[in-house]
Amino acid sequence: MFKFLEDLFAAIFGGKAVAPKEPPKPEEPVRGEPAWLKLARQEIGTKEIAGAQHNPEILGYFRDAGFPEIDNDETAWCAGFTNAMLERSGNAGSKSLAARSFLTWGNEVKKPYPGCVAVLTRGDPRGWQGHVGLWLGESDGKVSLLGGNQGNQVSIAQFPKSQVLGYREPFKASKSRTMKASTTQMALLGLDGAVILESQSQISAIGDLFGQIGVTIPQFLLVSFLLKIALLCIIIYARQDDLNSRGR
After folding, report:
1. Count of domains for the chain
2. Is the pLDDT at 87 greater than 50, yes or no?
3. 10 Å Cβ neighbour count for 43?
4. pTM strictly above 0.70
5. Does the residue 107 lie in any domain?
6. What is the C-alpha separation between 194 and 199, in angstroms, rounded?
């Protein structure tokens, strides 16, 4: 309504209506975007080298992702690139070169935002193959991703939105006493939270995994049970500690 009145006033008194701002283009940085996306933008244009030579920049992605033994740029590297950008920005990656490994990494994102990790299917939706990149936007039923190994290079490319399996973001460690207490308890249990267990939900997931293995190997059922009991103790202790710290 106010926009209509402004345009009408401008038409009557000879003023000029202010043209609306155009939305930023996908390749243009946006203020406040996550550090890993900023780093990824700087890599746009990095390409594989045909033949016996291999691009040292791509080998650097493998190294920073935790796979220094890979010495060629023909190995699928979309997950390696995404992991490298996360690690370089101080965030733990998925510790895997499988694109779909990101489906169980970090936290789920209900509403995608520039820089969140998008996991796509490739080929059979029920298979193991996939693709991963950093979400920039979507239009006309397609999502724009900044990713590695897109046309054998780091680029911005579009994919059908129907291929998206999920959106994820790095697990954000809380500074609350609850998280500190939980971390302390995990350490006492001998669990490496920095590398293997980045959230309480992952402890539960590992417990479920041992439970599934226990169907054929009964000894794993006990491990599953103990893990879930440990998780319950962690949560009860941490929440009680939080309440005590607030005088409740």
Report:
1. 2
2. yes
3. 20
4. no
5. yes
6. 9
